[in-house]
Every structure is written in C-alpha cells, then in structure tokens.
Amino acid sequence: MLRKSFLLWPAVVASAVGLNACNQVANFAKTKSGIEYKIFDKAGKAKTIKPETAEADYKKNVGQIIALHVEYRTAKDSVLFQSRKQQMGYPVRVPLQEVARKGGLEEAISLLQPGDSGVFRFNADSLSLKTTGQPAPPQIKKHGNTMTLYVKVDAIQSQADAMAAQQKAMQEMQAKMKQHEEKQKPLDDKTIQEYVQKNNLQAQKTASGIYYIITQPGSGPKPTPGQTVSVNYRGTLLNGKEFDSSAKQGRPIEFPIGVGQVIPGWDEGIPLLNKGAKAVLLIPSSLAYGQRGAGADIPADAVLRFDVELVDVKAAPPQPPMGMMPGGAPQGAPQGR
C-alpha cells in the first residue's frame, strides 16, 4: 500500500489545496535547471521572481522549518497527493537545507517566501531521478511525463517554534480523530452487518469490530507478536473495487506481527488465522485508514475487505545490535497510519 512520506518521491495521495490564483498556470517562467514555475503573493497576484535573489533569501532561512500545504497532480490533472487531507488541514513541516541538486523539489521550495503560493511543473523522470535515482513509476508515467506541484507556504519558523506548533497540532489532530472514530464506529458496524447479510456470509466478530470469515482452515500455528508472516492478499472496497493485491507485487508480502508496520486491522486480524488458512477480513475504517483515507482509491471512512491467505509463519528476526535500526516496512504491506 502507501508509505508515509513528504516531498520524497512521491507520497502520492489526494483533492484541492486551495491556492486561489495558482490555477492560472499559463505563461510559466523557467529556471536554468528546467523547472517551470509561477509564484503568487498573499493577495494572489503573480510575482516576478529572480532565482538569484530568491536563492540568497533562501540561504538566510537554512536551518529553520517551513510549514506548507502541498498537492501533486499528474499530466492529466489527476490528484496524487494532498497534504491538507492527510494532515486534516494542518501544514506539514520540513527542515530547510542547502539546495544540493538543482531541478528538484528543494529548488522549487527555495523560490517561496511566507504567504506565497506556487505552481511548479517538472519532468516526471527528471524529478524522480533527482529524488530516488530511479525513473518515474509506471503508475505516474501512464498519465504523462510531467508532474505539477501546488504549494502554499504557511510560515517559516525556528526549530523551537516549529516543534511547539507541531506538538499542538498533533494533540488537536489526535483529539479530532478520536472523536470522529467514536462517531464512525456504529456506522461502520452497521455497514459491515448489512454487507454480511447481503452476501450471506457466516462471519465472526472481534471485540474491536473486525468481522472475519475462515474460508479454508489452516493446520499450522497461529502467529504471535514479533513473528514474521507471509501473506497473499487482495484488498477491495465493499463495492468490489480492488485497490491493492499481493499479485501486483508478484509475491506474498512479509511483515512482523504486532509492531505497527501494518494497519491495526491486520495486526489483529492475521493472528486469528492458522498457517495455511484463507479468510475474509472486513475491517472498519478506524482500524484501517480512518477519516484520512489512503490514495485516490481508498476514500475517507472506508470499510475494507481483504481476502487473505496466511502462507507462512516464521520465528521473530534477531534483534539488531545497539545503535542500529531495522529497515522499513515491506513494499506492498498495508501501512500503519
């Protein structure tokens, strides 16, 4: 599924940043490195930017934190990522560093001042090569070989101010999410019950609200926290639309159970199965992607269906030596929020 990231290629998810005049994208200016851009001031009026002057102004802010809203769009104007939705209206915060490579996102951001809005158009392959060293993914290039980034700068802050603002925002977000989840739980449960009845499923329910149907019993052990599992899966919305599957990856996905590398519904649902079992998991939104949703294919408050097969259960991997951190979650796993 989708990984959490920002400004690294790409965190891809979706809607409108609300940049007012930024929709007027005719007559782009262009940097020497090839970035097409248009900058607007607080009043929404187009600004004339001298990259040399902007670079000097930017260097004064290196070491501080920029708070901004961003949105990625494909060449066909499909929204790929929208920070306002993912951040519940709060800006994301990114450290300002020296622009190491021209032609990428760092240089684009360096042209902006607090209150500015900007539209930046990149060659998708060039942007991807500058951020990951790899060409643009096929799912991006199928829409065309350009990427447009819409940005609105909220503030540039000291590290102390940014940390205080971030902590306050996180507390407010968590309170809002918890309040929303409590209201959403009975709605999700009603939705799942109706789905179960409509499809004549013999489902069991966990205390947290997951419904599961064992379609093929297994004969091996059930996984315990810390053990690594190998799972084939197909994820769909309740209308049958597929949003992900292990078949797309060409192999089962592997991840450790109970450590938060996958959505809570998986950390709880997969241990219900014996090795070799196949099942259907119906996961309420609070144990999936909640009110944020995930990507263009998983809307907010979506109940998810996963058809899963527990292929293997392995012993917990050895702990890394002190000072070393284990690697990230496996590609393809439904990521924790």
Automatic annotation (TrEMBL):
InterPro entries membership: PPIase_dom_sf, PPIase_FKBP_dom
Entries under Pfam families matching the protein: FKBP_C
The enzyme's E.C. designation: 5.2.1.8
Coiled-coil parts of chain: 156-190
Domain PPIase FKBP-type: 226-314
GO molecular function: peptidyl-prolyl cis-trans isomerase activity
Catalytic activity: [protein]-peptidylproline (omega=180) = [protein]-peptidylproline (omega=0)
Entries under Gene3D superfamilies matching the protein: 3.10.50.40
Cleaved signal peptide residues: 1-21
Keyword Oxidoreductase recorded: no
Positions of the UniProt region annotated as Disordered: 316-337
This protein's UniProt keywords: Coiled coil, Isomerase, Rotamase, Signal
The family this protein is said to belong to: Belongs to the FKBP-type PPIase family.
Protein's name in the database: peptidylprolyl isomerase
Source organism (scientific name): Hymenobacter gummosus
